[in-house]
């Protein structure tokens, strides 16, 4: 393998392991790999450089990511097809491109460093900016609208389940009081309010106290979990036999969804009590990772964003017979 050379400031997470896991499916001439989350194009660039006979179809719902990564991948010419799409649209994208099956699919979930770094996108709690958080600003509703219009019970549910925020109720009580006075528009007021709502002890640990609320709002604004729930089965369905899928998650709910889909595919689906499992009930996936793989300490020391990463992968071993 040639050594991929990503730009140092945006190091792709668990890159070497992703390449090793997908590699055996990508070495054949004519192989097609999908990067479902192009972002800054770090993983994509490495895939193209490492597997020179491979074609790449790259998706991102953020037009700014397509623009930036498009320039980065320009040297690979017509080996790259970049498409503005939400990743659960993968089957439609492949149908449009006339590609019935692919040999690899990579998901690197969540936000890119570019999205976090651009203050006016509203993802970062460290700078005052409009509370937007949409990965595609041409559709959907902003984080400010969620905060200003959702019923309190719904906000508590979102902060608890998507942010694992123990003080969800306290924060939402404060939000509801404040929004009646004046609707939220920018992030600093929300950060300040969270700081005031949390007990002293909670503020001493776990970094910025607004972090969990911001993550929860982002997941809600972008409908991240329902989209992922459709996308992973769709990606498995698009794999040719021998094709491989790898998914990097950064949140326990994402990882659980991925685990469930891959584990279900790797189990047989025969009714209980059959002495022999007939072909149509045999598993269609083989797991390539034991549980979720984690980044090494060295990687985390170099790249904080890698710390929560969980990597799972599987190989398609059978066609659907049903
Ligand atoms: C963590 S970044 C990917 C970084 C990339 N692997 C790299 O090495 O530069 C995730 C990207 O996926 C995109 N994204 C997130 N959810 C998406 C979805 N449902 N459909 C399409 N793109 C999505 C985001 O806009 C972001 O650009």
Question: If you had to describe this structure to a student in words, what would you say it looks like?
Answer:
Belongs to the methyltransferase superfamily. RsmH family. S-adenosyl-L-methionine binds at residues 41-43, 60, 87, 108, 115. GO terms for molecular function: rRNA (cytosine-N4-)-methyltransferase activity. The protein has helices at 15-26, 42-50, 63-73, 90-97, 113-117, 143-149, 152-163, 168-181, 187-197, 200-203, 211-221, 224-238, 252-266, 297-302; strands at 32-35, 55-60, 80-84, 102-108, 239-249, 285-287, 310-316. The protein has 322 residues and is an alpha/beta fold. The chain has two domains: 15-114 and 224-316, Vaccinia Virus protein VP39 (Rossmann fold), CATH 3.40.50.150; 119-222, DNA polymerase, domain 1, CATH 1.10.150. It has a seven-stranded mixed β-sheet with strand order 3-2-1-4-5-7-6, sandwiched between helices. The radius of gyration is 21 Å and the shape is globular. The model is unreliable at 1-8 (pLDDT under 50). The structure holds S-adenosylmethionine. The site of S-adenosylmethionine has 21 residues, from helix 2 and strand 2.
